[in-house]
């Protein structure tokens, strides 16, 4: 068995998908970019659906808040969960667009991997 000690040495990951040492944060930028893309798609679909403007604004703000939490790398699971239920309820009521529902479902599934 091999044992490595790095002591107080810090090794910068330089945005790599692999890191050694401590205090490194590894982010899969492809995954983050995919999340940002699907969030943009969801916001576009929300804007296409006929709903009261104040309700649309609330849903957009909630989606953007959830996106910020996910992109932070350490999402507040309680806040994201609550906002997700609220957005889901509005979208299910305004289910006039199958594309919106499908896009939301894909977005929600993508979020689930960050909530583990």
**Residue fraction in strands:** under 5%
Radius of gyration: 18 Å
Q: Report the total helices.
A: 4
Overall mean pLDDT score?
80
Detailed description of the structure:
The structure is a single chain. By secondary structure, the chain is mainly α. The chain has helices at 29-48, 53-71, 77-93, 98-112. 61% of the residues lie in helices and 0% in strands. It contains four helices and no strands. The protein has one domain.
Give the helices and strands, then pairings.
Blueprint lengths: L28 H20 L4 H19 L5 H17 L4 H15 L4
Helix pairs in contact: 1-2, 1-4, 2-3, 3-4
Short overview:
The protein is mostly helical and 116 residues long.
Q: Main traits of this protein?
A:
116 residues; mainly alpha; 4 helices
């Amino acid at each position: 068995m091999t044992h490595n000690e790095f002591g107080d040495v810090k090794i910068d990951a330089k945005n790599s998908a692999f890191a050694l040492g401590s205090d490194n944060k590894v982010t899969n930028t492809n995954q983050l970019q995919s999340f940002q893309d699907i969030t943009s798609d969801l916001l576009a679909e929300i804007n296409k659906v006929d709903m009261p403007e104040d309700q649309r604004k609330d849903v957009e703000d909630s989606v953007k808040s959830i996106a910020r939490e996910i992109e932070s790398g350490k999402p507040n699971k309680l806040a994201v969960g609550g906002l997700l239920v609220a957005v889901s309820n509005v979208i299910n009521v305004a289910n006039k667009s199958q594309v919106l529902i499908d896009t939301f479902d894909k977005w929600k599934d993508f979020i689930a991997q960050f909530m583990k």
